[in-house]
Amino acid sequence: MEKNQNSLKKNSIFSLMSLFFQSGYSAVLGLVANLILTIVLAPEIFGIYILTLSIISFLNYFSDIGLAASLVQKKDITSDDIRTTFTVQQILIVTLITIGFILTPYVRSFYDLPYEAIYLYWALLIAFFLSSLKTIPSIQLERHIQFQKIVFVQIVENTVFYISVSLLALNNMGLVSFVYAVLIRALTGTILIYSISFWMPKIGISRKSLKKLLSFGIPYQTNTLLALFKDDMIMLFLGKTLGLEALGYIGWAKRWAEAPIRIIMDNVSRILFPIFSRIQSEKERVAQLLEKIIRYQTMILAPTFVGMALLMNRFVELVPKYSKWEPALPIFYLILISAFLSSYSSPFINLFNALGKVKISFKFMVYWTAMSWILIPFLTSLYGIIGFPISLIILSLTFIVILFVAKKNITFAFIQQIYPGIVASTFMGLIVYIALYQPNSWIQFGFSIITGAVAYVLILYVVFKINIMKEVHSFFKYD
């Protein structure tokens, strides 16, 4: 038993570190690519890309009906489970892609898209199919908590995509840059993951396996459907209501403001689900892990968001041709707030799912979805483009209710875990604000970042007696 726990711990930590490395690498690469694209491309072109991705996300929901998550959550799986999942998924995907191609003229007419946008739409449909072929090999790796191998594939995919799209955009290929980059990425990732975790596709459906998989999969996927309507369908609504240029501003603000969440919490959530599933009967270990996640995410996210809020306007001024994104800054600031507050919901939603309490997650998703479609259209009609981020802040406050519900299932401390990071970040923000009273330049920009980082570490150490190096070491000892 102890050997299995140590093995789980070792694989979990190695996988999490691999995910963070991949995110860090991709973040730097993505930052460079995003800078190039948002300098070269107009906001409306960026809006088209955001819109098209949302359409594909809508199709992606119906491609799985929760079977993949069932394979990860299920304690033991059989060859019938794997074969059934693959077969059902492919039937759904081929059907969806066919419908997607048939609807092409309607999509173009509805959003008044240029013809190049249709090529991107088709490329994403093809990539959608290729991505589905990666499901079973990825699940095999996830079940063994070998995310480092999945990470390697993602690193190669991101490298190929970002380099391709950047070089093509610099060669004045505009929206077509995304078309080639998307296809190259999809082909590369599919070939690579089969070389690492080979699985010979097999066709067949077992009614017994399908019934068991759907018993978890359908409630789980229902949450995904609600998330789809809450996020991607809202993007489609905003694209039609506010226009593609406004959607470009929203997409730019969301990408920058939510970057820390994508890098940190998405990876933590991804690894938490299988870990919580394995230790779900050990309430004390679950509580310890929860507290450490809350503590560390606050210590990382709080100073990051404070720094971004203070420095983004200077960044927009310094980057050539970036002044066109100034209208998006108010949206960016508000989404920063909502992103930080909503980050506290993620660990607990994963906890509920791993403990088999999918109904709790489902109720929250119903609330978020319903309120999104009430608040966003209403506030958008009142305040225009700024109504969207205001709605996000209101919705993010739900984390307070989630905490109370979680405490009924697991006993854990919350305020004690977030207090040091938030207080230290506040004082760090004051120091950075003072440091910014100089002529704007890259030297001053870099100096402000270094000053803030040093101040934050010193405040934690002097005021709260928190040694960052010891905290990092402590992370590896959650059991």
UniProtKB/TrEMBL annotation:
Q: Which InterPro entries match?
A: Poly_Biosynth_Transport
Question: Any idea where this protein resides?
Answer: Cell membrane
Broad class of the protein's primary localization: membrane
Supply one GO CC term from the record.
Answer: plasma membrane
Protein's UniProt keywords contain Membrane: yes
Q: How does it sit in the membrane?
A: Multi-pass membrane protein
Ordered alphabetically, the record's keywords are: Cell membrane, Membrane, Transmembrane, Transmembrane helix
Which Pfam family, giving just one, matches this sequence? Polysacc_synt_3
From the record, give the transmembrane residue ranges.
12-42, 48-72, 84-107, 119-139, 176-200, 293-311, 331-352, 364-380, 386-406, 418-436, 442-464
Recorded family membership: Belongs to the polysaccharide synthase family.
Q: What is this protein called?
A: Polysaccharide biosynthesis protein
Which organism's genome codes for this protein? Candidatus Roizmanbacteria bacterium GW2011_GWA2_37_7
